[in-house]
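Example record

One chain of 301 residues, shown exactly as stored in the release files.
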Amino acid sequence: MKDFSKYQGVIPAFYACYDGEGAVSPERVRALVRYLADKGAKGLYVGGSSGECIYQSVAERKLVLENVMAEAKGKLTVIAHVACNNTADSRELAAHAQEQGADAIAAIPPIYFHLPDHAVAKYWNDISDAAPDTDFIIYNIPQLAGVALSVPLLREMLKNPRVIGVKNSSMPVQDIQMWRDEGAIVFNGPDEQFVSGLAAGAIGGIGGTYAAMPELYLKAWELFYAGELEQARQVQNDCCRIIYKMCSAHGNLYAVIKEILRRSGGPDIGSVRAPLAALAEGDGPIVDECVTMIRTAAAKY
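Predicted C-alpha cells for this chain:
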C-alpha cells in the first residue's frame, strides 16, 4: 500500500512572482517559498490557476519550478501543474518536473475544445508517460476548464498506476465522496469549503487563498483533527468572510492577495500579468480591511 502521508495537510497554491517589469522573478519565487515554509505549509502546488499558468510560457514555468525546488526540495511536498493546451508542451513540462524532483505532477483537461473522455484520458496518460516515476493528480475544475471529471473517466485513469488522485475544485462536496469511493485520494479545492471537504474525506487542501492567511487554514486543520468541529467551522466562517471581502475589489483576486501579502509583511511578489486586472483605484481600503480581518481572526485562535 502506497504511503500518501506527504500529501496530507495544507498545501497553498503558489502565486506567480514578477519583478517590477512583469517578468518572472527567481528571487521573489524563492522568497515566497521561504515565507510559506516558515508559516508551516505542508507543500506547494506550483503552476496552477494561482500561478497564472495560462499566461506564462513553457520556459517561464520551468524557471518558476526550478527556483521553487531549489528552496523546497526535501522540506516541502511539491506538486507541479504541467498542463498546457497541447500535449507536446505538457509532456515537456512533465519531464522537467520529474527531473527537478517534484513529488507529483497535475493537469487540467485541455480547454476551449470540449474533448470526449477517451481523448482527455489519452492526453493525461501521454503527460504521465513523460514522467514515469512521478505521481499524477487529475485537476478537476470544470467551472474554468469547461470539462468535468466523470466517474467513468476517473475509472479509466486509475488503470494508470501513477494516477493517485484528484485535486477537486468543483463546488459539490459530493464529488469528493465519489472520487474517494473509486479509490482516489482527493484534495479539497474550493477554499470556502475546506472544513466540509475534510469531513467528506479529502486528504488535505490545495487553495488559492491559503498563502494569504495560512495560519487560519492551519488552525482549521488542527481543530478538525482534534475533533473541535464547532471551532473549526468558526475558523472556516472567518476565512469565508475574508474571501468575500477580497472578491469585492475591482482588481483580480490574485492582485488583491499579493498586495495583502505585501502589506502583511510578507514578500513583495509584484502584481498580476495582463489581461488579469491589476488593483484598481479604490481597492486599497479593501486590501487594508482584509489585512485587519486576517490579523483579528488569527489573534482569536
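Notes: The beta strands are 9-12, 43-46, 77-81, 104-107, 135-140, 163-168, 185-188, 204-207.
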